Amino acid sequence: MSKTQTKAFLDTRPVPMPDSAEVKVVPIPIDFAASAYSSGDLIELVKLPIGVRCVDWALNFPDIDSGGSPAIAFSLGIENTGGTDIGTEVWASGLTAAQTGGVVRNTTGACATGDTTVDRNVVLKVTTAAATYAGAGQRAHLLLSLVG
């Protein structure tokens, strides 16, 4: 398992956080690596500070698996305390929109019910590697609806 981080995660791209109960929509650009991801790899997307809750999300993927039988799939959720996997707070799994390009949206309440008493890391986990990786230079976007 390897890890990569977005600029938002590394704090080199500012991420505005909500300071009230009003919803703030926050875009998180995800620049895909030049080399292919392996199954189990993590992409650390953004840090959610104490008191901030995600109430909705959407992911816009480009086509990053160009083979005739695309296979790439992801899960989205909160990283476990060891930083080795998604923990018990899984927001979505079986996300295959990156096989052809497309948008996936939140379909459960999992993101809105998580623990906000600790800092958390939102991660994208590669659950199935690409058949023919074509992600170099490609960008996805995660839109988070956050409240303070």
What can you tell me about this protein's structure?
A five-stranded mixed sheet has the order 1-3-8-5-6, with no helix packed on it. It has a four-stranded antiparallel sheet with strand order 2-9-4-7, with no helix packed on it. With 148 residues, the chain is mainly β. The chain is 0% helix and 45% strand. It is built from no helices and nine strands. The mean pLDDT is 96. The chain has a single domain, classed as Jelly Rolls.
Task: Provide a concise account of the structure shown.
It is built from no helices and nine strands.
Main attributes of the structure:
single chain; 148 residues; mainly beta; Jelly Rolls; five-stranded mixed sheet; four-stranded antiparallel sheet; 9 strands
| Coarse structural class | mainly beta
* Largest sheet geometry: 5 strands, mixed
* Top CATH class: Mainly Beta
CATH architecture: Sandwich
Whole-number radius of gyration?
15 Å
What is the mean pLDDT? 96
Q: How many distinct helices?
A: 0
CATH fold-level assignment:
Jelly Rolls
Seen as an oligomer or otherwise, the chain set is single chain
**Fraction of residues in helix:** under 10%
**Strand arrangement across the biggest beta sheet:** 1-3-8-5-6
